[in-house]
Amino acid sequence: MAGRGTGPDFVEALARGLDVLTCFDRDSPTMTLSEVAAAAGLARPTARRLLLTLEELGYVRASGGAFALTPKVLTLGMAYVGALGLWDIARPHLEALVARTGESSSMAQLDGSDIVYVARVSVPKIITLRVEVGTRFPAVQTSQGKVLLAALSPDELAATLAEASRAGLPPFIGRSPERLRDELTEVRARGWALADEELAPGVRSVAVPVRDGTGAVRAAMNVTVHAAETSTDRLLAEHLPLLQRTAGDVSAEWALWQTRPHVELRRTSDGGSAIA
Length: 276
Fold this sequence. Notes:
This protein is of the alpha+beta class. The chain folds into two domains: 58 residues, Arc Repressor Mutant, subunit A (Orthogonal Bundle); 184 residues, 2-Layer Sandwich (Beta-Lactamase). It has nine helices and eleven strands. Strands 6-5-4-9-8-7 form a six-stranded antiparallel sheet. A hairpin with a 2-residue loop joins β2 and β3.
């Protein structure tokens, strides 16, 4: 993976450190030095130095000759979510929506050609996919992804679709590029998107946009059901109106939150606080 930077300010060492962090996943929560080096495409001495640095910083722990991430890694992603203020605003609304529908609800944002889940409230139902905060799926196969793709300009959409998915799923060949663009035009016009067993058998969902204070689509919110339990007609007739109302409430509160003045408190020498 070395040497991929194109700009004069690209820091290869930082990129390699991030490569090491992203080697760990659900299937490989613990890895040896050799496994990390192979997964990140690094020489063993380089991988060792990076792992020891990450261990000293608290992001990695070593035990019995193997390495694993620590909970401190969560701060890297949660800092982004917290900076948006979106999760704190959305959480009670998602919980209320799930209580009314009896179905799981999530919020995702676009990252390249994938969506990444940034919030989720789930119900204990058996589905074919495991979804949690940080889960990544190809955008074109999901209702949330279609909503987010539909909000892009033609040039942005073309560039996004040209990127390879990092979700680790087989390539999706369910529709032509022309058909996808037609579907996204329809999604943009009606304000919601449906994914009917496109991501996995039995998984059906509907999604709507979440907007910031400028009206720009910054996230998407969905309701996911089991196809054998909930028909498309019921999903659209009963759950979609509740979802639209919830997303509208979240967007409105987020817009108000963004207009509030924000100050940073710093700790003083006497143990008190002061405005920075």
